Amino acid sequence: MEFEHQRCYVYQPNAHEERPPKRQRIGKASFQPQLKARIQTYRDLWAEQEQCIQNTLEEADSVTQGSIVDFVAAAGSSPDEPKFAIPTGLVVAGPSIASHGPYFERLGRKIRADTNSAYTVLTAGECPNLKTLLKQLVKKATSRVDEEDEDDLDQPSRPSRHGPKLLNYDLGHIQEWRKKNHVSSVVVTIQDSEAFDAGLLTDLIGLLHSWLDRIPFVLLFGIATSADSFEDRLSGQSLRYLEGERFDVTQSDDIIEKLFSATVASLDNRLFIGPQLCRRMLDRQKDYVQNVQDFCDGLRYAFMSHFYATVPSVFLDDRLKYEDTQAESLEAVRNLPSFRQHIETRLEQGTFARRTVRTLLESDQELFDKIKYDISSAQNELSSLAHAANVLFSIREALQMTPNVKASTIWIRAASGDLLESPLLRETMLSLKKTPSNKFADLLSTMEELSSQKELPYERGPKDAVVAIDVSGIQSEFNSILAQKETSAPLRTEHDVQNDSVRATVVAQKVLLEKHKAALSKQDQAYSDLVTRVYSHLTSFFELTLIDPQTLLFSEIFIYDLKSPHLEVFQPKPRFSVERAMASPHDYLGCDCCGSVDGKESALGATQPATAIVYQMYLESGALINVTDLWSAFKAIAGDEDNDEESKTMALFQRALAELKYLGLLRPTKKKTDHVAKVMWKGL
Amino acid sequence: MVSIKRRRDDNEEEGTPRKLRARIADDEAGAESDAFEAQTPSRRARNQHLTDFGTPKSILKKTGTANGVNVTHAATPKSNRKLLFETPIKSANGETPNGTPTIVRNADRSARRKSNRRILEHATHGEESDEEAFDEEEILAEEILDEEVGAVETVEEVTQVEVPVPETPSKRKRGRPKGSGKKKPKSPTPPTELPPHEEYFWQNRPGGLKTSNNTLSAQSLLNHDEYFQAISGYEDRHQSEMDFLLELHSRAFDQWMFELEEGFNVCLYGYGSKRTITDKFAAHLYHHMSEMAPYKDSKKIPKIAIVNGYAPGTTLKELLTTIASIAVSNVTKLPNQPAVLLDFLLDQLSASPPSHPIPVILNSIDSPYLRKAPVPSMLARLAAHPSINLICTADTPNFPLLWDVGLKTQYKFLFHDATTFAPYDAEIDVVETVNELLGRSGRRVGGRDGVGFVLRSLPENARSLYRILVIEQLALDIMVQGSDDDDEAAATPKNKKVAHAKAAAPESNQGVEYRVLYHKAVQEFVCSSEVGFRTLLKEFHDHQMIESRKDAMGSERLWVPFRQEELEGLAEDLASDAF
Predict the structure, then answer these.
(1) In this complex, is the C-beta atom of A251 within 8 Å of any C-beta atom belonging to chain B?
(2) Whole-number Å distance between alpha carbons of A148 and A625
(3) Which of A111, A665, B439, B450 has an alpha carbon 20 to 30 Å from A166's alpha carbon atom?
(4) How far apart are the CA of B310 and the nearest CA of chain A, in angstroms?
């Protein structure tokens, strides 16, 4: 049975297309050693990440949501008291409209759970006018508890013993429903207040106000711009009916930043998303979408791609035993560029190293152990790297330095390995040297906190042990210096400019500028020494931790930084793809016949598909195209002399025209007979 | 003003290198004021002279000579006419032979100023100045400005070359002959390598549109039978490459399934019909699923919903009903409204989620039937549900414009390029589309004969109504054309644009207004009530003999989908009661 012209159906396998050939093909195509194990590892890792994301999101939301819920609860606390204005929450949710829907959904869940209220969300799309709006409102408010079919509501007057049946947009429905269900307030949420007609909003407010003595309404407005501009849109009359309170939702920029440090820049990551990809994702957030969900999807897809396509990624599984590994996976590891590089450098290091190389190449067991060991140590190092980026950010924050560089930016620079030599770091360290004691106190408390997350090593001790900065020791030393301080002015270091004075003397008609250090007090001197010590410790800490991740052995396993599938999958260029397919079909077909003709790229060849030929002629022509001329040109290129062939050529031509029309490149015109109008210009 | 100019020029002339030019121009003017036959020898002599002592620019000289010879031996009627036309003006201007060159120069100079002014004017309020006229004048202005830049030598060259060809800008006087601008050798080939936006403006420039008036003969387009016969015999030479592309895409099936499992939806785009891919994918999915838990070793079979969005009349309701038939086991009574049905379906899916997400394969999500307002957002809501896996294809190049950021988030699409180069066999009705594209949808009924066949089987009244419609439409067409012709006859460049606009107007106002037709019909006692009128029209509609559309004012317009020649034939047949 032919299904191609049927509109909707349930798939049924073809009878004659039986399994054996299919199975064979699948078996061959999916050469994927240990795919199951990898996917399982992905699921484990992603579950952790997702947990982080959820926590971060909830944390970001919780404060405002809590206050909105309190507001709603307060409004509904005394339902029978007469009110003169509708309690109104102005929820300033920011410009990322894509996240408004989920936000109000979460809010609704919380409101319904925590207060005794009915909650309805209205969007501009479903409410073109007041009548439809009220219908929607009635339907949504009442159908939450008892399901009523739309059809019943549509039938207007069915006389009952309560008098005439109400119309389906009468707020009396809600009143009746409230009597039955005893809710303390009815929350009406206007999700996208900017998209509503101002007149409609005014009408709605007026109407709700007039019902306020019977139904305790609470209004929530989702605002993407600002509360002021919302106020400007309403008339004074309707503003008098409202009793507003403003709630600022955490903006998506901040949430993204938080998410970033919770996921990508987290300290206990097993898979690291590389700087290139991160920059791309963040730029996309900034420039186009502003959407938390999209960021999470991007991250998830990066994880998916890594574990799906990279065979050695199976070694990221902590519980993996040597017995479970397949030879193919180890073989794949031996082919990694970083491994080859490693082997080559080892080979030049003498006989002992050469012997290890041999064992790595020959013994799977040895290689396995090496991989496991190196990966965990590299993960440690990368974690230190992330920590260092975090430390730098915190120092800048504690010292209140401008410009305000985002933590994600610092992380990306650190991960691409160019932070160590960057002016950013140098500048920060210089201003650290000059810090007066009042700011230094902030800095120390930040460092205290950071070192509790992960210690701050500044020196490599014997046998992989490290010497960490003793923050609490410094802290107590600092406190004792402060205790001896006599003046109220903060202590200053010797590098502080305020201690310098410049003396100008004229010697033999030349001006000599001399810098003089003011004499430092004893406390100042002690403080200065302390700061210098912290400075040198931190400097060596950064030197120790800020490595270039790409140089690590097996970096392909634990770093994912490919832009290739990511870019196409999230930012496709369909128009470019279609245009390319038709303008140079050879790029896709890769056939022998349609390549470059006589060394000329993109020349029209008779062998090209008919649509491609017509399309290329289409590109050359003006805004109006004479089909007759197009046809004769086409015939000249693609046609044969044979008369019988002409109908075939014509069929191809007609098909090409129809395809161009279907793709939206042509439209009919009445300007001239047998002409068509060009709609799209290539590359525009 | 001219006289002051002249005096200054005269002063300048003393001992300036321009003298040479002046002399040549003298010659030229003298020659021109002579009769055509008389001037040739002198010109030839001068050409000869220049060949001997002239500038080293030999190519130019040669052309000059060649032209001169050409003129002498076989003066084409064209240039002849031109000269005769120009002569009186010249003589009027150059009464004194000596005065001519300065006049020429003055004219040039004032033209220069004028053209500067014009360009300035155009820059400030370009809309008001007439574009077509401007086009010509601009070219002239630019040329004059160019000339100014060129040294004396260049001027010489120009005279040399252009002397034999009468229509040169340097020789044009104040009263430039009408239409001579057209002779200006415009580059016949469009500029290549323009950036796309420049190309757009180039191709849409006013007056830039010149296509031939050729028309396709009615026989050359194939009808359905011929088309299918021809295309069935056709074998694509790229079949093996297309198969390879398909094979490449099917290698990604497992990856797509993984993506679907992870809660994403998949959208395939690229040139070529992707139906084969989705078919194969459905088969793949089916086999994969039938080996999984709930289906293996049981009678149950996996169910995959397939929707062909391109099929005419596909509605969201059908789509939802199909999915509901899979998702909801004990179908009691499905709600009627699509919106309610969607809510119902989503509630059902949330309340009792199926053991695995339901795969929905949607071919051509960007088809015209699924583009309109509520459908994309409702589809997005459906796709956002975790128990639905949507695999869709999109054909048009600009399909992402269908969705805003919010919808895109809901859809959660991963996009894959799936270019196949396969013909859109099911998606497009080729013959019909081409006919529509060329405004020949009348061919559908089988042309004039088909209409006759239908009309013969209809009552007298119907025939009369059809005749009224045809004649009214013809009258309208002729009216529109008549006004066009009038305009064009008086076509100074200024109102050409208006004419153009008028010609474009009927595109929306095509056909006869419903009211008008009804009143005519009542007047001629074809029908007595609107109900009867409607009944008659319906018959025509059913046979696709008329088409209707709402125009910009909201009133319905009816027309017969034939071109004028065919309409005339039809009208004749109807009038002579051939049917």
Answers:
(1) no
(2) 57
(3) A111
(4) 8
